[in-house]
């Protein structure tokens, strides 16, 4: 409707507004007034051949310019009767671009300076708007990617802010948070019921405020009923738009069995069949002496094999090795 009014007010035969998302495989949205449906689809398919997307950008133009300053034809739509044209492109590097253009046929006069001034105002308004638009489009894409990332992980994981506010979480994370009364989820904020451990949890999250992505930080949450502590693992996420600071929070429950993917571990690291068997037994809770007895070897042999696994995986303890295995599984 707005484009229709712009076309009429400017005395144009055709007016176009094109949006091209450069983050999502160049997805095109075209608003047009004066084009038939077939012409509309034709322009979408061939828009890169238009003067606005080659000559204009190559010459580093700014604002609205007349087509005859770029080419001896009125661009791609000359074949549809366009004889005079003005237009401009607003590009937000890495995110997307927007173009605005208007056309007159040969029975009309060319665009004058005053009309170009009016279109210039429209162009610079579009430039300001497009920065906000592409930022919102990018945030929408980022949020979708984060949701999918969390949803399909084989571990209890959530994305939280520096105050424990849960932005996204998967079913396994929600299950552990619900099943363990030591944790509390209220109004979308995760906390620990024990006051001292809640203080430690706040400090752990607040520690990411001015830090850069690096090694994970850990907090052990004690449980009653003879259950081993829950392990909270927090890592600062990197590469987020608008410098957003989100934290990936993983809950590891040592009493909740997981299915170790020994084959995946063996593909990532050059493990022998004996080392893979050792990993499988460790994941089932067997100690070095238990494994030695099961395999009919000395404890020293098991420890030597374990040292070899440490060296290949760059781990320094059994707990670190099991965390690595669990993250892969």
Automatic annotation (TrEMBL):
It comes from the Bacteria. Signal peptide: none annotated. GO terms for biological process: regulation of DNA-templated transcription. Coiled coil: none annotated. InterPro entries: Sig_transdc_resp-reg_C-effctor, Tscrpt_reg_LuxR_C, WH-like_DNA-bd_sf. GO terms for molecular function: DNA binding. Gene3D superfamilies: Winged helix-like DNA-binding domain superfamily/Winged helix DNA-binding domain (1.10.10.10). PROSITE patterns: HTH_LUXR_2. Residues 264-329 form the HTH luxR-type domain. It holds the Pfam family GerE. This is LuxR family transcriptional regulator. It comes from Aeromonas schubertii.
């Amino acid at each position: 409707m707005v484009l229709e009014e712009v076309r009429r007010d400017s005395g144009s035969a055709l007016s176009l507004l094109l949006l091209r998302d450069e983050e999502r495989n160049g997805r095109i949205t075209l608003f047009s007034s004066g084009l038939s449906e077939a012409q509309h689809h034709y322009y979408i398919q061939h828009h890169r051949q238009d003067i606005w997307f080659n000559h204009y950008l190559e010459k580093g133009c700014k604002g609205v310019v007349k087509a005859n300053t770029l080419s001896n034809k009125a661009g791609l739509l000359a074949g549809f009767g366009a004889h005079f044209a003005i237009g401009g492109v607003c590009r937000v590097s890495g995110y997307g671009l927007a173009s605005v253009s208007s056309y007159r046929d040969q029975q009309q006069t060319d665009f004058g300076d005053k009309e170009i001034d009016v279109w210039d105002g429209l162009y610079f308004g579009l430039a300001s708007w497009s920065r906000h638009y592409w930022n919102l489009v990018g945030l929408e894409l980022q949020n979708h990617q984060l949701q999918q990332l969390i949803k399909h992980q084989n571990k209890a994981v959530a994305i939280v802010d520096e105050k424990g506010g849960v932005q996204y979480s998967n079913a396994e994370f929600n299950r552990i948070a619900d099943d363990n009364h030591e944790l509390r989820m209220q109004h979308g904020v995760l906390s620990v019921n024990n006051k001292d451990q809640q203080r430690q949890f706040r400090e752990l999250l607040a520690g990411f405020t001015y830090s850069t992505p690096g090694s994970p930080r850990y907090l052990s949450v004690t449980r009653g009923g003879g259950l081993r502590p829950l392990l909270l693992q927090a890592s600062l996420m990197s590469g987020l738009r608008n410098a957003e600071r989100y934290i990936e929070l993983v809950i590891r429950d040592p009493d909740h069995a997981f299915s170790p993917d020994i084959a995946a571990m063996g593909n990532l690291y050059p493990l022998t069949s004996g080392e893979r068997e050792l990993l499988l037994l460790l994941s089932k809770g067997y100690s070095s002496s238990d494994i030695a007895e099961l395999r009919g070897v000395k404890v020293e042999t098991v420890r030597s094999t374990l040292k070899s696994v440490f060296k290949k995986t760059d781990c320094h303890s059994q707990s670190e090795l099991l965390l690595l295995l669990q993250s892969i599984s």
